[in-house]
Amino acid sequence: MSKNLSGILKIYGVAFAVLAMASFPCPDIVRAAIVPGNRFILAQLKIKSDAGQNDPYPLAARDILAFLQQTTSVKSAPERRVIAVTDPMLFQTPFLIYSGYGKFALDKEEGEILKRYLSGGGFLFFEDRAGEKGGSFDYSFRAELKKIFPDKTLTIVPREHAIFRSFYLLRTVGGRKLVNNYLEGMDIDGRTALIYSQNDVLGAWAKDLFGNFLYACQPGGESQRWESQKLMMNIIMYSVTGTYKTDSIHLPFIEDKLRR
Question: What digits encode the pLDDT tens for the residues 249-260?
Answer without folding.
Answer: 434 443 444 344
